[in-house]
User: Fold this.
Amino acid sequence: MTKQLKKRPVEKELKFLADFEIYGVLMFAGIYFAAKYIVDMDCGENPFQLNWISFYPLLVFSVIVIEGSFYWRNKLKLIKRQRALSNVEIGRIYHKLRWVNVILLTAYLPIIIMAVLAKENLSGIIVGIFLYLFAIIEQINYFHVRLSYETVKGGLLVVEPLKRLFTGTGKRSQLRKDIDAYLRLR
Assistant:
């Protein structure tokens, strides 16, 4: 028995994706600062310090997600026949951004290793690692294989896209297709 995916009209889907990514960034930042405030209030002096160990991955995650929002907004403009970048222009820009993101993600590894060796605050390290993993998932979702936004009867599929990623049967993301189009013309 095959699962029937819920479909929205393309224009509504693109608007949802563009808006939802911005809301996601705001939500993650809000939760981050709210958790810090609540933990500081409940536990006393500096139990969860605002430092680069936990804040840097939030910034990287936010950058990647905002890039995604701009991508979907441009796609929306394209289908509305408004002034927008072509798929090849988008491919050229995001081909470079993909590598900037990889550098940003890689730069975190020495930070976290030094934090662990220096026995920094454990809660900051844990939060940082979770945010770092979210950033990696978004990087994969946008620049390699589509992992999200699949629903069956209103419920979000999580295991299915991950299974496709690890078995190599996942669909290339739309952004990756635009990057590939640019690379073929280069």
Summary: The longest strand covers residues 151-152.
